[in-house]
Amino acid sequence: MADSYLGPSSKPTTASLFSPQNHSFSLSLFSPPPFTNFPFFTKKPQFFSSSLMSSSSPNGPSKLNCFITQNSHSPSSSSSPHHYQPSLLVFSGGTAFNGVVEELKKLTTCVAHVLPVSDDGGSTAEIVRVLGGPAVGDIRSRCLRLSDQSTSEALSVRTLLGHRLPLDAQVAKSEWYDIVEGKHPLWKGVSKPYRETIRAFLVYFQDQILRCADEHFSFSNGSIGNFFFAGARIFFRSLDAAIFLFARVSDIPTDSLVLPVISTNDRLTLGCELWDGTIIRGQNEISHPSKGSVQTIDKGSSSVPALPARIKRVFYMSSEGCNLLHEVFPSVNPTVLEKLQIVDCIIFAMGSLFTSVCPSLVLRGIGEIISSRSCPKVLLLNGSPDRETSGFAASCFVTAITDALNRTYGDPENCLKNTPNQYINTILVPKDGQIPVDIEILAAQGILSVVTVESIPDPKLGVIFDPESLIEALSNLLNAPIYVESVSRT
């Protein structure tokens, strides 16, 4: 029988993330061996403590990573003792900025990646439809890009968690059973402690699917990393704990944080209001509408019809909402606010402007802190227009970000009146990009620093930043040297 592997010996049974008295980390997943004996729990769990304890315990430590000390130019623990790493916070989605993550490590690993949790397309959509909860696809994507590649086992884990099942539903389901039962060739090269840890959460995910007997779950084009992430999130009842586990399994540098902009176990729905009054519900419907089938999303601008009008604003809707009366106001992840106050540089990354970047900016508290900072605040301009930004010039991107941070078209009692240059003081532009750079209007907005960066053509995305040149430009801006690790880990 296909589900025979769901036995009591392999199913997770109980979790206690920390004791209220001493905040010690304890998790009973297998007996024996104890979970904390696994190799990725041998280091002090800095990521877990800073992103979880700060919001879960009033007495627990809240800043246990390099972000506390970076403003005093102290070196990161993960690099040469003579290498100062600037601390960055990046607002982005899960795709466009991924292409520069590896190169960015040469400048710094002390980066807080702030990502939305409202994606409702592809494999993520199917998980949210059946099991609910926030979307984990963008977070999983960034975690994989940050994961270790220095050993054969690290590469095997990365390959496993980055694997997607076939589009054919029956073939996908069959392959899924091979993976969750531990029979698939993808497990080759993954040692037993890692294998049993990863597999336990895949088993738990499968158990949750079986409990939803009334909902037929499609494994078509499913992401193994998404399934692992969803299983961990449901098991721990915490998105932050799932991120910590994923970070340890994939050996992400401890001073690199992947932060959901909203720390929640609830489903979040993004809506947008167009200038003609039209309301569109769902991130995928705004950015890359499809016919409802699970498929690979094509993010090329020519693959989808144009919007009937430009986007006025994005906002969050209740799970059953379909108009402006159903707008909700979730709270921002407090760790994001902590990092915004102390990082050396704030970056608005390239990508889908209204569905990847703006969902993080419209939350209360974000605009207040960014406008108060005197650090570099950098916009990475897209190289090509998309469905959301058709007809935009560079100043239109600035206006959209300013309006989102000011919450200009939301609740009038909670809007700000800050100027564009209080949010952005530098724009990096890809050479030969298709977005017009209207220097005079940018100057009128108070933005005088516009830097052209070498670019490369991408067959799907058009003109994009050359990663090496982009990191060099950031290095010059921050007056921080680029560092190349000379000795690989073994």
Automatic annotation (TrEMBL):
SUPFAM superfamilies given in the database record: CofD-like
Pfam hit, one: CofD
InterPro entries: CofD (IPR002882), CofD-like_dom_sf (IPR038136)
PANTHER family reported for this sequence: MATERNAL EFFECT EMBRYO ARREST 18 (PTHR31240:SF0)
Protein name: LPPG:FO 2-phospho-L-lactate transferase CofD/UPF0052
Organism (species): Cinchona calisaya
